[in-house]
Specification:
The structure holds 2 protein chains of 2 kinds. Chain A contains 7 helices and 15 strands. Chain A folds into 3 domains: 105 residues; 121 residues, ATP-grasp fold, B domain (D-amino Acid Aminotransferase, Chain A, domain 1); 54 residues, no CATH class. Chain A is an alpha+beta fold. The longest helix of chain A has 24 residues. The model of chain A has no long low-confidence stretch (mean pLDDT 89). Chain B is mostly beta strands. Chain B is 7% helix and 29% strand. Chain B is built from 1 helix and 6 strands. The longest helix of chain B has 6 residues. Classes of the chains: A alpha+beta, B mainly beta. At the A-B interface, helix 1, strand 2 and strand 7 of A face helix 1, strand 4 and strand 5 of B.
Amino acid sequence: MLLLLSNSIDGTADMIVSLCAERGEPVFRFNIDLWTEYRFAWTADGYAFNDPTGRAVTSDEVTACLWRRPSLRDTPDWEGGSPEDRVATEAELHTLMREIADHARARGVLRLMEPTGARRVGRLAQMRVAREFFTVPDWAAGWGVRWPAGRRMVKRLTTEGVGEDRDHYIFVQSVDSEHLSPAWPWLLQEIAPGTRDATVVYVAGRSFGFEMERTRAELGLEDWRIRNGTTSEPWRDWLLPDRLADSIRAYMDRLGLHYGRLDFITGDDGVFFLEVNTNGQFGWLDDPNGWPIHNAVLDATLDPAFSIRGGEVTRETL
Amino acid sequence: MLLSASALLLTTAAPQAATDITPFSLATRPQIVDLGEMTYDWDRQQVKRVPGKRLADSTANCNTDGWETQRNGQTDQVHDCGFD
């Protein structure tokens, strides 16, 4: 049985459940934000879940496990308890999800998406390795520095929430870098000279390419990632240039990743690599006529060849 | 073109100015999606609208708009929430 660790509003998880039903593939979905609706127990012999319909799964029955955003960060308004108990419980639940993933990994059934991928393959490591395969805009990180004058992108090393309630985020955006306070650490990158944003969903050796229909100039943007609500801008299929799919496959192999969504910018000067998100979203990009990406994700999740073994490493050429 | 790390550290860091950009000044609260009466269909393990039932939460932080799916013979609008 496929154990899907997710949350109740994740559309991709919905689609995977739907495809499992079509295929007759048994699946049990745990939604972390609805945790109070489930019953759960774990002893030395293994764990078991029940959901309100009476559906159940035990750890012995789990033949594949997919980490699909089991985070309360995406659904912060779950009900119940005092604020203090909620904070304490969120930490416990997140840790329990990691324990379940570790249990699956030890048994060779954790598949495709690496729960700690973003931590293992950090922004700087991915850009260092990417230089061997793609053109990468110059970048720098540090503090105690008055940055050279000019407009540059500011990125974050993590995607953690900021602010007292951890409910704010610092999205990639452009700034006059000479005005960045030297007292704080920053990650800066030159603005790539391309005209059109593109993204590739990489699933177990296959690349699904997309580009925005409109250029950055037409959108009045320096980078589409600046925006929230990005899916209001139409995307279209992107036929990858010669050898780019091979380069992506080789790059992902060097990072030890079976899955990722890679962002590029394209133009007359070529293709520029921006970043890879190890658990990046892809739902809005998929073709409703057959859902090829969701099917590829499910295929790979059920395939032992794409197990997360726990020994994945990022290999750099020194 | 950014300088090398060593060259950057050789530059004199001017003292902090009141107009300098600090991290939180670049932060925004993401789009809040009101899930309203959106409910969870335990039988299908999917989100579905069912009168009289509500999700445990009523809002979600999302950085993408909803996308439309057609499954189980119905059209649904779902969200793809997260920050990457």
